[in-house]
């Protein structure tokens, strides 16, 4: 069979303890990865279809439009690894052109991973797929049968923007280890731009981004034993120019006390929980981050307005 499933979902740290540490800090925060429970993953998929959320459309036109050039630089027969593969749709923009030896999607959402990987196996009769169920923040173990082949890591969607620059350097350094000596990384990075466009992209008129943000409270209730009520908070997102990032927060609409585990959290009306950063880079700024992680920037593609970029980085 051309489909293999590897369950590597260990206990990825103590989530409840991490949540409580953030919620009891002087400036309250939740790690952005808590946005992605099953409902959160579905809401994020809905975001990618929103007219205001330009990122996936731009990235698609860049990768699909240059897939032959990208493939010529990379060459066929790679093991193509995608950390955080979601619905595995982005890889299809270049699969035929790239002709990898195998595709290795890595995701925490077991059901979505299985269904998406099987869809690819059915659609591409020449393709071998090794799905790995794991948190891409933890260490990924490649199946032994693939160990000797050259690798290409694929990290689209500007997910790198959800790390601070220091975290991004540390993460990319680990990706550089994973891709190995003759390996490469193809990565999508959203660019610094007019703040009206950024504010609209994270404050869509259909309110889906607000639902995505508020859903984290439901996830917190489940994981850490909380009694947050979503309708007592509101979605706040804005571009912070001095940090070059869009910030998402949840703001308390009223004075209230929330219980999480053994903790009583007092919120005054207007108090916020910081739930996500989405950094926006210049091309030079991102290359500096990639180089600080040890990568060599081979090529950068971007759209004609300079809204989004795709970088090929070599070990
Ligand atoms: C996954 N990540 C790149 C998205 C972003 O744009 O930072 C998550 C997101 N947050 C709000 N809308 C989309």
Please describe what this structure looks like:
The protein is an alpha/beta fold and 315 residues long. The chain contains ten helices and 13 strands. The protein has helices spanning 15-23, 38-47, 55-65, 67-74, 95-98, 110-123, 165-179, 195-201, 208-224, 283-292; strands spanning 3-7, 79-83, 102-107, 129-133, 151-155, 184-190, 233-240, 245-252, 256-260, 263-267, 272-279, 296-302, 308-314. A hairpin with a 4-residue loop joins β7 (233-240) and β8 (245-252). α2 runs antiparallel to α9. The longest helix has 17 residues, at 208-224. The radius of gyration is 20 Å and the shape is globular. It starts with a strand and ends with a strand. N,N-dimethyl-L-histidine is lined by residues 47, 157-159, 161-162, 202, 209, 276, 278. Its EC number is 2.1.1.44. GO terms for molecular function: L-histidine N(alpha)-methyltransferase activity. InterPro entries: EgtD, EgtD_Methyltrsf_superfamily, MeTrfase_dom, MeTrfase_EgtD-like, SAM-dependent_MTases_sf.
């Amino acid at each position: 069979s051309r489909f293999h499933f590897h369950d590597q979902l260990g206990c990825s740290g103590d989530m409840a303890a991490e949540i409580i540490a953030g919620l009891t800090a002087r400036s309250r925060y939740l790690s952005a990865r808590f946005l992605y429970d099953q409902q959160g993953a579905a809401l994020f998929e809905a975001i990618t279809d929103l007219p205001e959320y330009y990122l996936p459309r731009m990235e698609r036109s860049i990768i699909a439009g240059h897939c032959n050039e990208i493939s010529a630089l990379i060459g066929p027969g790679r093991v193509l690894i995608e950390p955080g593969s979601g619905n595995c749709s982005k890889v299809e923009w270049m699969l035929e052109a790239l002709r990898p030896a195998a595709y290795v999607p890595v995701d925490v959402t077991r059901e979505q991973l299985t269904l998406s990987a099987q869809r690819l196996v059915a659609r591409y009769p020449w393709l071998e797929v090794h799905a790995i169920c794991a948190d891409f923040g933890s260490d990924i173990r490649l199946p032994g049968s693939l160990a000797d082949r050259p690798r290409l890591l694929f990290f689209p969607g500007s997910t790198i923007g959800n790390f601070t620059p220091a975290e991004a350097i540390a993460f990319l350094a680990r990706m550089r280890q994973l891709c190995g000596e003759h390996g490469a990384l193809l990565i999508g990075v959203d660019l610094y731009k007019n703040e009206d466009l950024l504010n609209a992209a994270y404050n869509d008129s259909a309110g889906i981004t607000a639902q995505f943000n508020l859903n984290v409270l439901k996830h917190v209730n489940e994981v850490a034993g909380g009694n947050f009520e979503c309708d007592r908070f509101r979605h706040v997102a804005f571009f912070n120019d001095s940090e070059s990032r869009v910030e998402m927060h949840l703001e308390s609409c009223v004075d209230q006390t929330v219980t999480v585990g053994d903790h009583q959290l007092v919120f005054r009306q207007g108090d916020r929980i910081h739930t996500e950063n989405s950094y926006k880079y210049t091309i030079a700024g991102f290359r500096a981050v990639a180089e600080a992680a040890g990568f060599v920037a081979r090529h950068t593609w971007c759209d004609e307005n300079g809204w989004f970029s795709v970088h090929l980085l070599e070990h």
